[in-house]
Amino acid sequence: SKKPVRVAVTGAAGQIGYALLFRIASGEMLGKDQPVILQLLELPIEKALEALRGVMMELEDCAFPLLAGMEAHSDPMTAFKDTDYALLVGARPRGPGMERADLLAANAQIFTAQGKALNAVASRDVKVLVVGNPANTNAYIAMKSAPDLKPGNFTAMLRLDHNRAASQIAAKTGKPVSAIKKLAVWGNHSPTMYADYRFATIDGASVKDTINDQAWNKDVFLPTVGKRGAAIIAARGVSSAASAANAAIDHMRDWALGTHGEWVTMGVPSNGEYGIPKDVMFGFPVTCENGEYKIVEGLPIDEFSQACIDKTLAELIGERDAVQDLL
Ligand code: NAX
């Protein structure tokens, strides 16, 4: 049987953590033959650590055959020791009256410390997924704080946006989501992201030609996907958790086990693809093979798409510039 791998999860006592840990431990992320050791990080405050103890009791009570070990930590330097995978879910939420700059600064502090800890103690091949918002910029900060790790070890979660887009297209066309291929979401995990179905196929037919309605794209599809997080908060009273955890599982599973030629969306550091400045953590279509992702290159970008990409890029550059002095 396989040797256990180490999976660190931060914010483990939060609502995404609660929807995520049980699925990792049951083998849905890394395979039904891959034992895992969970290294869980929470804030060093009694309430959070007590809640984490409760979650760990429930994990024990599942008696998962693949759960080879479990640790609680309040210091990233121990939580990330030798970790092969790190899901950075915990982040500072926006409090009442908090300005955007304050939010960026508070998270810069968290993700600098976590990036440094990963740099110091994690496996050299660690795969890092940042879920905590602002996810792209937090991933950028962690990457910049870990100079001894490859930039490509760091990614941000755009998969929820990708899955939301797929689901809207399935509903519009009356086809199952499984029939949709070659969808892409460009840019920031924020309402500025650009979900792009120009290359997508459904049962082999062009999605764009099947829908054939640019007004629907612009006036319905893009706003629906972009504002989906807010719609869920309005309906549920709290933010998306199960769907976010599901997207995190999809992202890591595909990165680790491969996509067999199919496209998925990951936020990854640019190497200059599509004119995105180097190191900007940007949503791109990728394929994954042998534990590596590869950006799908050479796609034509029309005028409408370029304007959308420019807008989401401008937002990311603004976030990057706001934290530059804190790194
Ligand atoms: P919760 O507030 O339920 O849980 C967050 C947990 O993180 C708390 O238990 C808190 O104690 C812990 N935490 C905070 N700072 C920490 C730190 N420095 N180290 C370790 N633990 C820390 O939030 P939840 O609903 O689970 O959401 C978590 C994050 O995901 C938020 O930043 C949220 O905005 C973000 N999201 C990102 C999405 C994406 O697609 N990228 C979608 C869903 C979600 O909104």
TrEMBL record:
* Catalytic activity field: (S)-malate + NAD(+) = oxaloacetate + NADH + H(+)
Q: Where, in this chain's numbering, is NAD(+) bound?
A: G11, A12, A13, G14, Q15, I16, G17, N107, Q114, V131, G132, N133
All copies of domain Lactate/malate dehydrogenase C-terminal, residue ranges? 159-319
Alphabetical keyword list? NAD, Oxidoreductase, Tricarboxylic acid cycle
Lineage top rank: taxon: Bacteria
Which residues catalyse the reaction? H189
Entry's Pfam families?
A: Ldh_1_C (PF02866), Ldh_1_N (PF00056)
- UniProt-listed InterPro entries: L-lactate/malate_DH (IPR001557), Lactate/malate_DH_C (IPR022383), Lactate/malate_DH_N (IPR001236), Lactate_DH/Glyco_Ohase_4_C (IPR015955), Malate_DH_type2 (IPR010945), NAD(P)-bd_dom_sf (IPR036291)
- What residues does substrate bind to? R94, R100, N133, R164
Q: Where's the Lactate/malate dehydrogenase N-terminal domain?
A: 5-149
HAMAP family cross-referenced by the UniProt entry: Malate_dehydrog_2
Q: What name does this protein carry?
A: Malate dehydrogenase
